[in-house]
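Section 3.1: Structural characterization of target chains.
Under the original work plan, the team committed to producing a structural model for every single-chain target entering the pipeline before any wet-lab resources were allocated. The record below documents one such target. The sequence was received from the expression subgroup and is listed exactly as submitted; it comprises 500 residues.
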Amino acid sequence: MKTFIQRLGLLHLSWEQARAIEFHAVITASLGDNLHEINSPILRIPHGNGYNKRWDQRSAISDQRSAISDQRSVFGLSAETLKNGERIIPAAIGLSHPEQFERLAEGCPDAISRAFVAGDPCYDRMLASLPRRLHYRRSFHLRPGQRLITVASTWREDSLFGIDPLLVSRLLGELPFDRYRVALILHPNVWASHSSFQIKAWLAEALRAGLLLLPPEEGWRAAVIAADWVLSDHGSVGIYAAAIGRPVLLDKTGLDVIDPRSALGRLLTVAPTLDPLAPLEPQLRRAEELRDRCRDVATTWISSAPGRSLHLIREEIYRLTGEAPPDTEPMLLAVDAPEIDDVPPSSFWTHVEHMGPERGDLAVHRVPASITRSGPAGILIASDRELDHRLAGLASIVQIRRDELPSDEETWSAAVFEYRPGVELTVAHDEQNASLRGRDGSLTQVTLNEIDHPADAELVFAVLAERSVNGSDDITALSPLTLAAGSEHIVRATFRVHAH
C-alpha cells in the first residue's frame, strides 16, 4: 500500500502521524480498525456501490446461518460498523440512494442526522467514460469482430475466483480465440493478500492462452465499458456493468451475504445466473435477452443523483470545514485507457472447413494449445516463439514473423526441420507476403493483394498453410478468400501464389 501511495505522488503518513495531526476533513471508504483515533471530522463514502453486504459475525452464527441471516445488519449502515462504543465515528455518511436512509434508520438510528445523498462518483465517471468505449477496446487490442468477455471477482472464499479459479482457463479453451477475448478483474485485496507473483503463477496457462489481466490499481472500469458481456459475482462490478447496459451473468454463490433490499440484491434477483460448468455461448445469449431488465433495475437503484456525485460530496466537505465551496463545478473526468500486456498465444489448434458454395468460402476455429491439450479436429500451428518444448514438438506448422527471423528464411526453416521432426511446413511472413517451405524442399510464396484489416494477415497465412498441409485444397484456387472466424468476424482477402 505504501508503495502504491508513493507511486501516485502522495504523501504517506504513518498511523502515529495521522493520529497526531488535526485535519480539516478526512475521507474514508473504510470502517473499523482504529479509525476512531483520528482527531478530525470524517466523511464516509461507500466502498463500492452503496451498502450491499451484511455484517457477518461468522464465528457466532456458523451453526445458525440460515436461521438468522435476515437479521444480520448491513456493513456501513449498522451500529457495529459506525460506532466505537456510544460514539458515531463518521461526521458525515454518504448514501448513494435515498432507500438507504430506511436501512440506516434500522441499523443505527442516531446516525440519520449525519447522512446525506452523495450519489456514486465511480458510476458517474463510468457514465462520463462511455463515449470513449472504442478507445478502450483499442487498448485491449481487439480486432474487428472480436467480442470481449470481462470476468470480475471480488475477494474471499465465496468470490468467483475463490470458488472457481479455473473458470477463465475453461473459457479460453472453450471459446474460439478469433471470436472472443477474455479479460480478468481481481479485487485489489486478492493481489494484496497473495502477491503479483502468486496470481500470475496461478494464471500462467491462461496468460499464455491470451488472458488479458487487469492490474489492481486501475483499468477495471475501462474493461467493463469495453466489454460485450460481464461475468461477475456479488461484488459491485456486476451492478456497474448492468447499469451501463452490459449484458451480465452473475454467480450467486455469495447471495446470502447480500442485503436483498440493496441495489445489488435487487439485481441478483433478476439477473441470469452464471453456470460455470455449462457451455457459455447459450448463457451469453440469455444475458443479452435480459439486458434491458437488468439495466432498468440497476439504473433505478445504483444512484439517485447520476452525474452529480462530485458536486454533492464537495458540498458536504465544505460544510464540514465551515468554508464556502467554489462557484465552479468539479471536473468529471473519463477514465484513462489502460495499458494492457497482451501476449498472443504461441500455439493454436487450428480447424478449417468449407462453409459456402465457393472454394474460397472457409471457416476457421482456433483455440490456444496451452489450455486445450487435444484441441478440435485440426492441426497444431506453433509460433517460433513457442517455448513449451512439448507443444513445439507436436506442431505440424511453425510460423514466424519476418522481423523476428534469427537468420535468413532458408537457414531458419532448415533448422526447424532438423530439430522438429513432426513439422511439415514452415511459414515466414509479414503483413503482405509469406513464404511456405515444405520438408521436401518445396517453396510457395503468397502475396496479399487486398485484405480488410492488416492484423488479419497472420490468420490468412495460417489458414493457407493448414490447407497446404491438409492437402484438400489447391491454395491458388482459394482466392478470393472469405474466411469466417466468427459470426461477426469475416476476413476477406485476395492473393496470388507463386510456387517454386
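The first strand starts at residue 26 and ends at 28.
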